[in-house]
Amino acid sequence: MRLSVPDTNGRYYSVALLDADTDNAHIVGRRETGTCAGEFVIVGLQWQRPLPENARVLRTGATTF
User: pLDDT of 18-64, one tens digit each?
Assistant: First the structure.
């Protein structure tokens, strides 16, 4: 899954990616990734296909993603 976030010009934002137990798997936002525009690719632990070069990879514990 691809997630694109815009440049927020220093404003706070937060996108929480939760697992099945509602624990934070990853957080995309000002505190973790900054406020510049960004491209993220969310994949499972065993994902082997090519990924975009300019995107940050976020691996989840789910192997069926």
Answer: 888 888 889 999 999 999 999 999 998 888 899 888 899 999 875 44
Q: Give the per-residue pLDDT at 58.
A: 93
With a CB cutoff of 8 Å and minimum separation 6, the contacts of 18 are: 24, 25
The Cα angle at residue 17 between residues 11 and 23, in degrees rounded to 5: 115
Q: Which tokens in the block code for residue 9? A: 């010009």
Is the CB of residue 17 less than 8 Å from the CB of residue 58? yes
For 34-58, give the DSSP string.
-SS-EEEEEEETT--S---TTSEEE
Pairing between β-strand 56-60 and β-strand 38-44 as defined by DSSP bridges:
parallel
